[in-house]
Amino acid sequence: MAGRSGLPGGKLRFMEIYLALLFGIALIAAFSGCEAGSTRAAVTGTLTLPAVANFTYYVWVENDTYAAVAETSGVVAASATVDYSISDVLYGAYYIHAWVDDDADGATEHEQYYGGVTVNPPLAPNAEVPSSGTVVFNITFSY
Question: What is the pTM of this model?
Answer without folding.
Answer: 0.71
